[in-house]
Amino acid sequence: MAPPTNMSWTFTLSGIPELGGNQQWFAPPLCALYVTAFLGNCTILFLIRTERGLHQPMFLLLAMLPVTDVGVSLTTLPTMLGIFCFNHHEIYSELCLTQMYFLHTFAAMESGVLVAMAVDRLVAICAPLRYASVLTNSAVGRMGLVIVARGVCVVLPVPLLTRRFPFCKTRVLSHSYCLHQDVIRLACADTTVNSVYGLVAVLLTKGVDSMFILISYGLILRAVINMRANDARLKAFSTCVAHMCAVLLFYIPLIGLSVLHRVGTHASPLLAIVMADVYLLLPPVVNPVIYSVNTKQIRHKMTRLFRRRRVGVPANGIAVVKV
Length: 323
What we know:
Blueprint: E1 10-12, H1 27-50, H2 57-86, E2 90-92, H3 93-126, H4 131-134, H5 137-155, H6 157-163, H7 180-184, H8 192-225, H9 230-263, H10 269-294, H11 296-310, E3 311-312, E4 320-321
Helix pairs in contact: 1-2, 1-10, 1-11, 2-3, 2-5, 2-10, 3-5, 3-6, 3-8, 3-9, 8-9, 9-10, 10-11
């Protein structure tokens, strides 16, 4: 007989099984990744918040990306540090479902932000004369509200549907955090509804988003090729490089992980673990580097920020270098 569904289950998170009892060896690089991600994304947010010259639609959209990256990092931080720093692998079902909800919600929001950024570049390059009238700060605010509402509403049924399942099999998850496709495979009940809704949710968010991104950058590429001035072509191309890097960094591991969970039954478990960790840990670390290097305004503001921290200006107006 299946156990009652209202019981509080305890799941076991795997970490990296290949490390055996030496999980703590992964703690230093993991902590370094989290610290780098928080510092980099918070620096981008601080610059956009404090520099009035960056209060423009392009940079307001850019500010949404660090918010989602920090959200993903904060969601996975407790269980990742618990496993690799304190060798704590247990998580209650309620906490697991909560982590699963916020993790998938922030991922859906990040996908929506990447679409909004692609649309921003499409209007700026293909219809520059209409950019100021189409993409205003208020329009960006409405886009942000739609992105948040879509992520919250589309993902909300996932934990509610999962909560009703009994788990009478081994309750050992494959990753260091709770993913929907990883949890439902342990249920001793018919998971067809969850699988179908999960697929629909992915298609409504990341599927539709990737299609719009491909169309947008296809139109951008055609417009860039047709530009007559080499300087304008180079500027437009360099502006889009950062966005394309962020898109590829988000979608390639995501697609690979989805394929592995659905058809990669004979693949090495380590491959799925590495793919999931890359999908969740690498974008928050690399995105601030991409935008600070490829976006001239961000690069200049960041240089001024660090110079300001090293140089003090006393009352007599003579700059003194701090050592």
